[in-house]
Amino acid sequence: DxxxxxxxxxxxxxxxxxxxxxxxxxGQLVHCGRSCEAxxxxxxxxxxxxASQVDRELYGVxxxxxDTKSKRSLDAADLKQAYEAxxxxxxxxxxxxxxxxxxxxxxxxxxxxxxNPEARNYYLLYGMKPPEHMRHMSAxxxxxxxxxxxxxYKNRVILAWLDFLHDYIGLWGETMVILAALAFVLSRVPxxxxxxxRLLDDMDWEASVAEIERSGRKRDETTE
Length: 224
Description:
The protein is an all-alpha fold. The chain is built from nine helices and no strands. Keywords: Coiled coil.
């Protein structure tokens, strides 16, 4: 399991590096037309899809608990205390630098998501990590807009109910709402997967074209 986590950690780092480089290059453009904007949106969507994958159950990462469902009622203070204790344990016991960095990243990721009510509800509803900007900002009306992330107004209403149920009814009420929303979510999964695959195929094709162009320029330089 640890070797698989290492490999996923390395892939995430490479994806993050490539995405930042793409953002940097785009920021240097004086003018970006409609086609350029559309391509940038595709890259951003593909990045968010890949970055949303969950390797380990987040409550398990933060709390080292097998029965994580019973821990969902912990408040922000409890989560912070667990985070600080686990962080100290990792820093003291993990000798390999890469493994230490990986464990600290997983831990910080889990804490940032679970301590934020909107990000936590997104994770519980979809089984995925929310977009990075959602982990640090309020997604209620007046903020950046829950509709942008979840696509439709009904999902924002679901998240509001999840907050209410989590605070006043507890785990079982929250679970019932999640189960009720599951059918709707599952109906969208095949389409989302097909869209993600098409985006990844487009990115692979663009990378191949760029490689061919570089090879052609090298041959021309050699001929000259």
